[in-house]
Amino acid sequence: MAPALGDMEPAEAESVYFNEYPPPKALPKHEALARAFIELHVEANRRVVLVTSGGTTVPLETQTVRFIDNFSAGTRGATSAEYFLQQGYAVIFLHRQYSLLPYSRHYSHSTNCFLDFMDEAPPVVGAANQDDGSIVVRDEYQDQMRDVLRKYRYAKKNNRLLLLPFTTVAEYMFELRSMAKLMRPLGPNALFYLAAAVSDFFIPRNRMVEHKIQSSELPPEYEKDSAVGGEGDEIYTGENEAEPGSRKKLVINLDPVPKFLHRLVDGWAPDGSMVVSFKLETDPALLVYKARTALQRYSHHLVIGNLLSTRKWEVVFITPDAPHERWIRVPKARRSKSISGVEDQVGLAEIKKGGAAPTETRQQPTQAEGPVDDGLEIEGLIIPELVKLHDKMIEKKNKATP
Ligand code: 9Z3
């Protein structure tokens, strides 16, 4: 039996993985766009951050009808991208297609449906057609929308934001590898901010069925062309004992996705660039341990740990240098309402020293703009702190190479 990707050296796993899949159709176009974008910002000596955002899908069939997905809407990535732009970075926004986008996130999806921000203006007195008034933004949203619109147009006009979509975990891998390699001319001016929720498991292509998985037995004459895996396949739809037409179980056997972070840090990314990954957990007892382990394993620069239930209000920075563990929290009074969040869990993942209650990071919320409900966005605290760390890294590099 062929060795599993997880048992191979990272470079070997990379070549096996990338040889197995055809590159995404959009990759050549994305590469051309990214090359021009990066060239422009290298010339301007501007920093460029690659922000990854949203979930990844794991298809169950080559002609995909069904897939495994995850919860991520891309809020972290889209919001962070705005704060990076505000800090003068150019942003390559590698995102799951149809997930939230910088700026338009304020007016999209069901939570912020753009139609709720609009109104019909009263008809102009004396106008011939009294039924054709203009569409306008409602009074109470004018200031906020003007502000968002100006920032969006500035980013567009000055070529500061490049949007690149992906859907599957394989597409994500191809895009990430290409972008990292294209970013090499940026050297220490490159930053990787890996906020996408990337699947840890997938079905290798050589075990994936071509056609739609059937939920019921087919008559024997159709079986060979059906999506049901044959003997030895590790994706199959239950036992073959049922009568034609009866329902079957679906059993799926997933392999671990190769750990791309090794290859990003040791191979693809520019020398001297900064790599920031995220660690997501649901168990507060595990978060800091898992984030530390990730930092040690991949020897990069920062792991930002977050719990699913408190991610909008607190994160922890795990760094190789002191203070090693630093919590960033939105002050209680400025926490936005969240349907999925559990406020009682804020502070639970912090390893208490001497039993002390966790301290809130007292940051002035003045530069960070909130969403419509005026909550303070935690990304408005994360990004300035991160930029300080990037400043230090660049300074150190400049000192080392006079
Ligand atoms: C994160 O931890 C992000 O902060 C969230 C953001 C996905 C929680 P939303 O899109 O959520 O704003 O709703 N991203 C990284 C998650 C991840 O898959 N990390 C891997 C891991 O934990 C390491 S690369 O093993």
Task: Write a structural description.
The protein is an alpha/beta fold. It folds into two domains: 26-109 and 154-203 and 258-400, 3-Layer(aba) Sandwich (Rossmann fold); 205-253, no CATH class. It is built from nine helices and 16 strands. The chain has helices at 10-20, 27-43, 75-86, 142-157, 169-182, 220-223, 260-268, 284-298, 379-400, and strands at 48-53, 58-59, 67-68, 90-96, 118-120, 135-137, 161-166, 190-194, 201-202, 235-236, 251-252, 255-256, 274-281, 302-307, 314-318, 325-329. Strands 7-4-1-8-13-14-15-16 form an eight-stranded mixed β-sheet, with helices on both faces. A two-stranded antiparallel sheet has the order 2-3. α2 packs parallel to α5 (169-182) and α3 packs across α9. The longest helix is centred in the C-terminal third of the chain and has 22 residues, at 379-400. The chain starts with 9 loop residues before the first helix and ends with a helix. The relative contact order is 0.13. It binds ligand 9Z3. The site of ligand 9Z3 has 15 residues, from α3 and β13.
- Morphology call: globular
Nearest-angstrom radius of gyration?
A: 24 Å
Number of helices, where a helix is a run of at least 4 consecutive DSSP H or I residues: 9
How much helicity do the residues have?
Answer: 25-40%
Bound molecules: ligand 9Z3
How far is it from the N-terminal to the C-terminal residue, by CA? 53 Å
**Given this structure, which CATH class of the largest domain is correct?**
Alpha Beta
Query: Could you give the count of β-strands?
Result: 16
Fold-level CATH name of the largest domain: Rossmann fold
Mean pLDDT: 88
CATH superfamily of the largest domain, by name, is CoaB-like
Strand order of the largest sheet: 7-4-1-8-13-14-15-16
CATH structural architecture of the largest domain: 3-Layer(aba) Sandwich
